[in-house]
Description:
Layout: H1 8-19, H2 23-52, E1 55-57, E2 76-84, E3 87-94, E4 97-104, H3 109-120, H4 122-137, E5 141-143, H5 161-164, E6 169-176, H6 185-207
Antiparallel strand pairs: 1-2, 2-3, 3-4, 4-6, 5-6
Amino acid sequence: MAFTGFPPAAVDFFAQLEADNTKAFWTANKATWDVAARDPMLALLDQLEDEFGPATPFRPYRDVRFSADKTPYKTHIGAVAGPTKWVGCYVQLSADGLAVGGGFHAPGAAHTGRFRAAVDAPASGGDLVTIVDGLRRKGFEVRGAAVKTAPRGFAKDHPRIDLLRMAEVMVIRELGTPAWLGTPRAATEVAKAWRACRPLTDWIVEHVGTE
């Protein structure tokens, strides 16, 4: 199926799901999720696969086992294209519209350790600062779990302390609901953002790894 854009019904669906996150609403409206959100997302990922590799769409169901929030469904649809589910380029559609980005979510302490060691090293750490600063200038916001003070073993006045405090690093750009969201141009905009994120994902693959 060719990607033709995300229809307005997808954004409307997620807005309604935010207001009524119940099994009854989901069951009654799942066909809208299938047609307006899931199918276009799969078509988008298929179109971008040749350049960015196969992507993994995330399940719509929340893991509520250890969460105080027991609402059963995610109020967005997202996917990551990369060598693993935890490193690569990201795309998301929600009631707020389209969001794109890239980076990594640390699956364990060893990955955070390798990340911080690379940030600490002058050459690789300096490269990451250049990459992140460039993405900020392009409208990306830097996100990721972080500690409040300097992690153990690092000085509080380290020149890259802001990055060292992070356990992982991701960048996200909120594109919202522009007129082209419901057209094939949406694929072009996602690809453009993913290309901008490629230096970051390449840095992560080189210095943090994929295992």
